[in-house]
């Protein structure tokens, strides 16, 4: 799929405005950059973005819950990704009881 086709696909059905906030020119550059990356480079990029998202989530948890233990911070973070049954089975921690 080329950049033009992707932009058409990103458009809202009832609108002519693309949903993306990236200009077509910059989007083309980004796609070319991604295409030139090795699988290892792509995996590293995804890993770094995942860590950044987790750090933002931890910052929100710390702000919301204040002084809680490192363990509780990690449990609350895990509960954002894992379902309730898994949290109970693996960590013996029920997000419904403890709060998210």
Structure, described:
This protein has 100 residues and is an all-alpha fold. It has two domains: 1-36, no CATH class; 39-100. 72% of the residues lie in helices and 0% in strands. Helix 3 (39-65) crosses helix 4 (70-81). The longest helix is centred in the middle third of the chain and has 27 residues, at 39-65.
In short, what is this structure?
By secondary structure, this protein is an all-alpha fold. Helix content is 72%, strand content 0%. The chain has two domains: 1-36, no CATH class; 39-100.
Keywords:
6 helices
Secondary structure blueprint with pairings:
Elements: H1 3-10, H2 24-36, H3 39-65, H4 70-81, H5 84-91, H6 95-98
Q: How far apart lie the N and C ends?
A: 40 Å
Percent strand equals: under 5%
How many individual helices? 6
Task: List SSEs in N-to-C order.
Answer: HHHHHH
Mean pLDDT: 85
């Amino acid at each position: 799929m080329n950049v033009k086709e992707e932009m058409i696909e990103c458009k809202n059905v009832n609108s002519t405005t693309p949903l993306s906030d990236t200009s077509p020119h910059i989007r083309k550059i980004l796609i070319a950059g991604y295409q030139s990356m090795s699988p290892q480079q792509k995996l590293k990029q995804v890993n770094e973005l995942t860590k950044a998202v987790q750090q933002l989530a931890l910052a929100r948890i710390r702000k919301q819950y204040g002084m809680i233990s490192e363990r509780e911070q990690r449990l609350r973070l895990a509960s954002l990704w894992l379902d309730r049954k898994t949290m109970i089975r693996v960590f013996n921690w029920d997000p419904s009881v403890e709060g998210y």
